[in-house]
Amino acid sequence: YFIQSNLRSDIMTEIKTIEMHTGGEPLRIIIDGFPEVKGKTLMEKRRYVKENLDVWRRRLMLEPRGHSDMYGALVVEPDHPEADLAVLFMDNGGYSTMCGHATIALGRYIVDNKLNKGQPVPVSESVSNVPVVLQCPCGLVRTTVTVTNGKSGRLTFTSVPAFCVSLGFTLSTPSFGDIIIDVAYGGAFYALVNIDQLGLSFESSSVAQITDAADEISTAVRSSGPELIHPSGDKDLSFLYGTILINEQDQPFSRDLCVFAEREVDRSPCGSGVTAQVAVQYTKGHMKQGKVKEFQN
């Protein structure tokens, strides 16, 4: 897929992308034509793009070439020796630090294009598990891609360590009064809110109603919620990415809807958000080691 952009009437810039999706959530992988990204480390490159090349994010994510729920991954050279590839995540409002749905798509992209440095991708009629290491702003994310008859398929990943920031925090909101939230980190920081507190329902409320509620909660958390500090102390990793509305956490499966960035709605269960939910549910005793739990959106 090629995207053309007129910077001036006499210049045409062509950017090459790969269009993928995971569970319905889009991913635009930018593989060629993006302006030079300067910086020695991945976080330096992230800051450089944010401060100097943000116009390209807007051109690639927003109308007319994108849409309000578009998500992107800019492929860059890793600075970690174990990484097969490094990535900068982008969305309709800025730059994320971790993305589960993008990790799944990128794992398959790396294997399909034989970009992994480790185990060769098998081409025989057999089933193999191929390891892929992705360097994200939050750290190394290790994936395993199942390859059958030379074609990539299912993928699992182990993310960075997740942790709880605050459980049972009382948050004041304009529309819902005082509500109880949990805040946790799963590669990015999220506020988790039981949807029943808001008088809403996944079955009967509209996406617009749920989006409005989640956006209001995110605004409230950013102004008066618990302080968010990444263990590294890096301010570029210490911000609330979004709010996830959830149902009861002690059920065999959990349902959620994540609203992040500038009111962007995740069409997948949200990998980094699920990781944050696992930290909360494990801490509360709703999940046990070795047990499988299903998350739906």
Give the overall form.
globular
H/E element order = EEEHHEEHEEEEEEHEEEHE
Quick one: biggest sheet? 8 strands, mixed
Care to count the β-strands?
15
Binned strand content: 35-45%
- Unreliable runs, pLDDT <50, ≥5 residues? none
Outline the structure in words.
The chain has 297 residues and is α+β, with helices and mostly antiparallel strands. Helices cover 22% and strands 38% of the residues. The chain contains 5 helices and 15 strands. The chain has an 8-stranded mixed β-sheet, sandwiched between helices. Strands 9, 10, 11, 12, 13, 14 and 15 form a 7-stranded mixed β-sheet that branches. The longest helix is centred in the last third of the chain and has 18 residues, at 207-224. The relative contact order is 0.12. The model has no long low-confidence stretch (mean pLDDT 92).
Topology:
Blueprint: E1 2-8, E2 11-22, E3 25-32, H1 42-52, H2 54-61, E4 72-76, E5 85-90, H3 100-112, E6 127-136, E7 139-148, E8 151-158, E9 163-173, E10 177-185, E11 189-194, H4 207-224, E12 240-246, E13 253-260, E14 264-265, H5 271-284, E15 294-296
